[in-house]
Write a structure and sequence with these properties.
Helices cover about 15% and strands about 25% of the residues. It is built from three helices and ten strands, in the order E-E-H-E-E-E-H-E-E-E-E-E-H. The strands form three sheets. The chain has a four-stranded antiparallel β-sheet, covered by helices on one side. Strands 5-8-10 form a three-stranded mixed β-sheet. The longest helix has 10 residues. The radius of gyration is 17 Å and the shape is flat. About 5% of the residues have low confidence. Bound molecules: zinc ion. Zinc ion binds next to loops.
């Protein structure tokens, strides 16, 4: 999604290169600094899938998947239509759940002084959430933490158990919904 320029990072701590930095990423570590960036020319390659994740952490869904979410009126989700591929949407969770990094022993490595974040946030599964003692309500959530390294960092998208069942019942090809134990 970020495009070929993603790896042209001036500081080159992650990927050595001397090209100008990508406009939506930190010039030192490559983390996304523009959280709303959408590549104006990006098109989905695996078009038969109703849901696909890009290597740089964008969760994309089909018109069919979006239509189900709207029909069910699930809260906590918004869709950004891809400018160059109007049959697909970037799905974003709008309600945040606090991830329990201590209990999960998530590792934060390579602090970046340029953007104030960690280049590597490793360890997201099994998923542990803070302050959750009952099954989640309907709809979508996202974790406060974003996992992986540099431009690949992304939150986890979580749905309530009933929503998960309803998504599963549609039998979307390749879309996997796994339960979280609390
Ligand atoms: Zn940085």
């Amino acid at each position: 999604m970020l495009g070929i320029d993603t790896y042209n990072i001036a500081g080159a701590s992650l990927f050595s290169n001397s090209q100008p930095p990508h406009p939506a990423t930190c010039s030192q570590c490559g983390r996304k600094t523009d959280q709303d960036f959408v590549n104006p020319i990006y098109r989905v390659r695996k078009r038969r899938r109703d849901a696909t994740a890009t290597y740089d952490g964008y969760f994309l869904v089909s018109e069919r998947f979006k239509a189900q979410c709207e029909r069910e009126q699930w809260p906590g989700v918004e869709f950004v239509r891809l400018p160059a591929d109007p049959a697909f949407f970037w799905l974003r969770g709008t309600r945040t759940l606090e991830f329990d990094a201590e209990r999960r022993e998530t590792r934060f490595k390579r602090y970046c002084t340029a953007c104030g974040g960690y280049c590597d946030v490793i360890g997201s599964t099994p998923i542990y959430l803070k302050g959750i003692s009952a099954p989640l309500g309907e709809g979508f959530y996202r974790t406060d933490l974003e996992f992986a390294s540099g431009p690949e960092q992304h939150p986890l998208i979580i749905v309530g158990p009933r929503t998960g069942q309803q998504i599963k019942s549609q039998k979307y090809p390749v879309l996997d919904v796994s339960p979280i134990e609390i």
